Amino acid sequence: MxxxxxxxxxxxxxxxLAATLxxxxxxxxxxxxAPDTDFPIQNLPFCxxxxxxxxxxxxxxxxxxxxxxxxxxxxxxxxxxxxxxAEACRESTLNALMALGRLPARALRTQLSELLRxxxxxxxxxxxxxxxxxxxxxxxxxxxxxxxxxxxxxxxSVHHATNVGRMFRPDxxxxxxxxxxxxxxxxxxxxxxxxxxxxxxxxxxxxxxNDAEPSVGPSRSLDYELEVAAWVGPGNALGTxxxxxxxxxxxxxxxxxxxxxxxxxxxxEYQPLGPFLAKNFASTVxxxxxxxxxxxxxxxxxxxxxxxxxxxxxxxxxGHDRARGGFAxxxxxxxxxxxxxxxxxxxxxxxxxxxxDLYWSMGQMLTxxxxxxxxxxxxxxxxxxxxxxxxxxxxxxxxxLTKRAxxxxxxxxxxxxxFLQDGDEVVLTGYAEAPGAVxxxxxxxxxxxx
Length: 450
Known about the structure:
Elements: H1 14-20, E1 46-50, E2 57-62, E3 65-68, H2 69-74, H3 83-88, H4 95-100, H5 102-116, H6 121-124, H7 126-133, E4 134-136, E5 141-142, E6 151-154, H8 158-168, E7 184-186, E8 192-194, E9 203-206, E10 215-218, E11 222-223, E12 226-232, E13 251-258, E14 261-262, H9 263-269, E15 283-285, E16 290-291, E17 299-300, H10 319-324, E18 326-327, E19 329-336, H11 338-342, E20 348-354, H12 362-370, E21 381-383, H13 398-401, E22 409-410, E23 416-417, E24 425-432, E25 440-448
Parallel strand pairs: 6-21, 8-15
Antiparallel strand pairs: 1-2, 1-5, 2-3, 3-4, 6-7, 9-10, 11-14, 12-13, 12-21, 13-15, 13-16, 17-18, 19-20, 19-24, 22-23, 24-25
């Protein structure tokens, strides 16, 4: 067997992190250097994949390839400070890695970056390394990246909350607690599915405004919701809290999330306790988790509060969070109908928004969630809630875009949509850009309505 290259250095220091984010860094994996790739060497998101007939394995995306972390470990390429995280990647999910916290995962990411760097020790034996360590993303099945014990969905966009509230309460769209407390509800972890999983139209009770009584049947108002998922890292013990100043240490990374919603079921059932069957039939997440380390160049303040709004209560206020609690992500929704696919027509973009248009940061959501002593665990998911902006075309769901189907969207082929029809494919995409940094992306979060 050919000798392995000298194992690259890797550690969790700020200097090592900065080196992985250097915009001049290139990879010996050609597809990682494409200008439009979501996964340049500056990204290196984690995922879980499976080849035909094999058990699930932890991987890291690079260009159009995936690095098999266990294969790198078996060849002695991962060592030192990166070893605990590499050993955790022997598991079939990312939960064990998430439980270790950011620094061990950073050391592993640093070592992989050095291994994949153009001009580094890994390039010396690329002819033998590539077949052993790399597998094409198109040749594997991408799986849900972690076992999700609990899933909580928030309502963190004030624009979304105002738009929706105005439809039902024109004179009082925002309830009085909204600007004081991050609003959320507990979702259904068992129906979280990975991108590409078909979504079956739910049935349930619905009652129109002119109906004498409710009826049971397929939802007539199926919708998507453009969201971002935060994956919890180490978490906290029951009865303890997570101060906002420590929230970043408990956020492993971000991915895209589509919280499918049956609006007619929701309108009938949501009072007095909130969403139930209108939300628990499916929520789709993208398979790649972009780490907070990869997102460092894109940290920014979330949108400023309006004049006259209350300041956050002390436990929800921290200088670091005020300055860097947000992520400068551009988020898009694309639609391709069955007729469009048959005709070979491209998907059409329905909206484009900014993840900075939130009222509450992901750190504030996590801290509030644990503030009563609730224990968060590795692999738990926190959804941001629908991401919408103030301008036309930035709304993150059809409920807002079409004003409850009163103003349907006309597609380029003449089809119209107030809500989703069978055969519609919804694709969420997201990317981060900033001056002096390499653009990174999140891959696709897709689902077809059956």
